Amino acid sequence: MNYRHAFHAGNQADVLKHVMLVALVEALRGKDKPFSALDLHAGVGRYALAAEAAKTGEYIDGIGRIDSATDAPAAVARYLELVRGVNPSGRLEIYPGSPRLIRALMRPEDRLTLVELHPEDNARLRAEFAGDGQVAIHLRDSWEALRGLLPPQPRRGLLLLDPSFEQPDELARLARGIATAQRRWPEGVIAAWYPIKDRPPVDAMLAALPPLPRARVAELTVFDTLFPARLNGSGLVLVNLPWGVEEALREALAWLQPRLARQGGAWRLEPLPG
User: Of 19, 23, 248, 25, nearest to 158 (Cα)?
Assistant: First the structure.
């Protein structure tokens, strides 16, 4: 459990993941029915960029490249609005993690379940949402929680899978997790994030997935050449993609990629292979 998301908060992968996440939650809000959101790798909720994140500086080439943009398409603009909302000084000092982004979009009837196994991060997460009756926090293994917490109530909603990818078999585990989640919660929207370091392992993970309803692959890379020793980009498997969201995601990816690019790169939003 050495991985701490605080060192990577606001990087290019976070920007992609969180723009997609905000768009999906906004789609759920579009109907007058309550929803459940589950984040099974929750972290601490918000991150001071002058703390751990300053040691890597990854946020500079992520949120730091777009935080002052005024020409962003709707999905990116909504995400930036939420980031600016936790930075009332106008300076980029705090980065909201996925729990804080989801919570900002919830209505009184909606519910959020957070799972975090790292004891210190779990304690910080509990402090972040202390007294919030709409948020439940668990100290447990995320993959075990996948079976224990699904399906939620209300049954309409979204599951975010965002593992640390410290173990060599994490991509295969993610594929199994997606399949398990869809089997236990057929109507749930699933957003499963993965890093892109080398192409063959990612392609093998995508090929291992079973047929999934309304499934798309969203990817953004920031280098033309993929070196396995670095984070070249990232992607998400999206399942049960809400109707009407795909075009917004496409516009967001097309806008983000050239602004986050380091040495070329590309983006795609396509049906799941096979």
Answer: 25
